[in-house]
Amino acid sequence: MKVAVIGGGPAGYVAALSLRRLGAEVLLIERQELGGTCLNRGCIPTKTIIHSLGLLEKIKTQKFIKETNFQNFSLYFQELMQKKDSIVDTQKKGLLILLKQAGVKIIKAEAELINPKTVFLKETSEKIHPDKIIIATGSKPAKLPMLDFDGKKILSSDDLWELKKIPQSIIIIGAGAIGCEFAWIFHLLGSKVTLIELMPRVLPMEDEDVSKEIEKLFKKRKIEFYTSVSIKDLRSFDDSVEITLSNGKTLTSEVVLVSVGRSFNTECIKTSEIKLGNKNEIIVDEKMQTNIENIFAAGDVTGNWLLAHVAYREGEVAAKNAMGSNKKMDYSVIPLTIFTVTEVASVGLKEKEATQKGLSIKKGVFPFKANGKAHIVGEIDGFVKIIADKDSETIVGAHIVGANASELIHEVAVAIKHRIKISDLDDLIHSHPTLSECIGEAIKDLSNEAIHKIR
What we know:
The protein folds into 3 domains: 2-141 and 263-322, FAD/NAD(P)-binding domain (3-Layer(bba) Sandwich), CATH 3.50.50.60; 154-260, FAD/NAD(P)-binding domain (3-Layer(bba) Sandwich); 342-445, Enolase-like, domain 1. Helices cover 32% and strands 24% of the residues. The chain has helices at residues 10-21, 36-40, 43-60, 68-71, 77-102, 177-189, 208-220, 308-322, 351-356, 372-376, 405-417, 422-426, 437-445; strands at residues 2-6, 25-30, 105-108, 111-115, 118-121, 126-128, 132-135, 139-141, 154-155, 169-173, 192-197, 224-227, 231-236, 241-245, 250-253, 255-258, 262-264, 295-297, 336-339, 343-348, 361-367, 383-389, 394-401.
């Protein structure tokens, strides 16, 4: 069977590799670079910068360091960008080796789907007629009406990687995951950072207690934010941008980052036969199949969860079903991670969602400041919050703000996925001293039995 995969990001390249393992002849068509946004402009670059800057910040703030040479560390911005580029290049080389070893044919071209059976390659005017097609074209930064990207003062998250110097000040419009991560990056770089959010709180899609904690940590570090406000007016000058908010406040900054979500790359679809949603996302069922029998879609372009790890699984499911399987996507237990002032991670239901579903819930909360390892590593901000269903005595949600939250959350994800009883989890012994003890203590707190929690 011949399958064309349009898009070489997380969904596309995983689909291509999965298809080859199932014996398909695979054409992977990518107009830009393999790895998509995640590898080239998203997950890998941002976390590289955050980790590097975090190390520098941690060294600078150690109380026991007295030598002036430690206190006066200088940041070499260009070298930092080179480190980021080196890591991205290494990952791309590894990906290319994976695909070539698997026997995937890689075509660098812009593809257009002109009918359900034909893919047109613009560069060569070649027409391909595969048996099955998987669309994995991803997404791009969304625009706002009065804030068209100019690559100089009004920037998208993609444009930030083209900066040659650190701006003295930056206004970030949108305090979601991307906005908050870049707020932390530019704070560590030394810029004056201001966040603007239309919703009532920072990280509005997270549990309310998580938002409150991040807002507290932002205030502590002098990162300004304005919530429940919109942009009333914008004026651009030679060396600055002036923004007037709906509350009457006027803000001035060297550059503005627009971080208000993503729009979907469906420009390649030149046939009206494929059903699109209200935001131009591709409508798929739980098998990642479109309304056209031989066409599947995966990743951001479907508008489901705009996360690389979800795209991986969607690509795999789409590939298997294209080859005749009957796999279904399960979105009920998806870990979500954010890397900002401290790490944020969640899985399952938020407290408000659980009560709205009619569940009788109980909560267990344990602060990092009561954990020995947190003090050892010098990261005592945050907490672990566990939400459980009283009737089934199982965990239905978990939210972590604190060091290594992105790693810790998976222990709870397994518990939710397999509906493990709280009593069984309570019997689990966590190694000491570790941050994972916070999860054990939060589970014990469901029954008001946390050992090290001061009440």
